[in-house]
Amino acid sequence: MNLSYTENDLLIEEYEMLRNRVNWQPFSRRQSRTALQNSLFVLCARRKDGTPVGMGRIVGDGATVCYVQDLIVLPECRRMHVGTELMHRLEAFVRSLIQGDETMRLCLMCALGREAFYESCGFLARPTSELGPGMIRWLKAEK
């Protein structure tokens, strides 16, 4: 598959389309806009005609910890190494932020059933004997 990878140019409509195509929870337009604007890095895999087929974001403080967020590859483009290429490029961006002998954590929360993919990219599944499980809490505005 002949793709180009573009940086920080994903449109809100494209982001929403990708999320919709993989049946992820929809966000409000405000949430989508703010998510993209506040990302440290947004990477998009595009067909020759410019149509997005995948994307990933890096969020975090850019100094001690970054998170891979919203790694998406359209179903018809899976198993074509698009996700792997996105991950390599996202990791390269994070490495470019590290200075000298500093260390930075690159974290993620993977979708159920995707553990093997992320392990193949070098990630460690938690919990381990030294690290507890990742945790999550969904919040809504107080009324």
What descriptors fit this protein?
Aminopeptidase; five-stranded mixed β-sheet; 4 helices; 29% helix; 143 residues; alpha+beta
What this model shows, in words?
The chain is of the alpha+beta class. The chain has one domain (4-120): Aminopeptidase (3-Layer(aba) Sandwich), CATH 3.40.630. It is built from four helices and five strands, in the order βααβββαβα. It has helices at 12-21, 29-37, 82-97, 115-120; strands spanning 4-7, 41-46, 52-60, 65-73, 105-107. A hairpin with a 4-residue loop joins strand 3 (52-60) and strand 4. The longest helix is centred in the middle third of the chain and has 16 residues, at 82-97. The mean pLDDT is 95.
Report the uncertain regions: none
Q: Rough shape?
A: globular
Query: Which value, in Å, is the CA radius of gyration?
Result: 16 Å
End-to-end Cα distance? 49 Å
CATH topology: Aminopeptidase
- CATH class, anyone? Alpha Beta
Strand content: 15-25%
Query: CATH homologous superfamily name?
Result: Gcn5-related N-acetyltransferase (GNAT)
Number of strands: 5
Helix content: 25-40%
Strand order of the largest sheet: 1-2-3-4-5
* SSE topology string: EHHEEEHEH
Question: Based on helices, strands and strand pairing, what is the structural class?
Answer: alpha+beta
Report the major sheet.
5 strands, mixed
Query: In the CATH classification, which architecture applies?
Result: 3-Layer(aba) Sandwich
Roughly what is the average pLDDT, rounded to an integer?
Answer: 95
